[in-house]
Write a structure and sequence with these properties.
single chain; 237 residues; alpha/beta; six-stranded mixed sheet; two-stranded antiparallel ribbon; binds zinc ion
């Protein structure tokens, strides 16, 4: 069977679950059976499609035989297909994790594509559910199951559009700095904003270091030029 256009050199594609709408959740595993060096994830928010495209380009540039990283280009396929932040149940997956910070109230974020000058509290009009309970969503449950199975020593979670790098937990020394230097993106120790039940909260509580990497709003060629060298070096390290 011909699969030109979807084959990726050396990567093994594995379905690790299904979305709320029944779309396969896919992880790209490196060649070989050894432990992974890390897990790179993108498009947890479906309106951040540029993160999925960027990671797809990364998979094309880095053969699965030359890395120990596992990669999930799309954590939220329902949202990506609908162009929404939330999954098909209206849940912001980044508020659905069973961390001690999880809260039952609705969460408010900025609408996608908002002018940076309009990023003031009153304009947080994009309303999401955090789920009926912590970990209620199939995407969340599947990702937790995968992380418990792979036990990655580091997670890098790519979002858009804040243009910053935010490291939590015991990230290997120098790594955040080299990512920040490669793309000339500011690294910071604290993150403004209230994100109860966030993926990175859950990771931090389970002892998995995590880097939240926010790219800027830009066209794909510019995003690739700026961010892919650092990601490629990370995957090959
Ligand atoms: Zn996001």
């Amino acid at each position: 069977m011909s699969r030109i256009g979807s084959e990726l050199d050396g990567w093994r594609v594995e379905e690790y679950g299904r979305s709320r709408d029944g779309v396969p959740l896919r992880v790209f595993r490196p060649a070989g059976d050894g432990p992974v060096a890390g897990l790179l994830t993108a498009a947890q928010h479906g309106e951040e499609a540029d993160t999925a495209l960027l990671v797809r380009r990364l998979l094309e540039r880095t053969p699965g035989t030359e890395t120990r990283w596992a990669v999930i280009p799309v954590l939220n396929p329902d949202g990506l297909l609908a162009g929404t932040r939330q999954n098909a149940a209206g849940v912001d997956l980044n508020r659905n994790f069973p961390a001690t910070t999880w809260e039952p109230g609705e969460s408010f974020t900025y609408p996608p594509g908002i002018d940076p000058e309009l990023r003031v509290l009153a304009n947080r009009t994009n309303r999401s559910s955090p789920g009926t309970h912590a970990g209620s969503e199939p995407e969340t449950q599947a990702l937790i199951g995968l992380i418990e199975r792979l036990d990655p020593p580091l997670v890098v979670d790519i979002h858009s559009p804040l243009e910053l790098i935010f490291a939590r937990g015991d990230v290997p020394p120098g790594l955040t700095e080299s990512l920040a230097r490669s793309a000339n993106v500011p690294a910071q120790d604290e993150f403004e904003g209230h994100c109860p039940g966030a993926f990175d909260d859950w990771l931090t509580e389970r002892g998995t270091p995590v880097i939240v990497y926010e790219i800027e709003h830009a066209g794909l060629p510019d995003l690739c030029k700026r961010h892919l060298p650092g990601f490629e070096a990370l995957l090959r390290s």
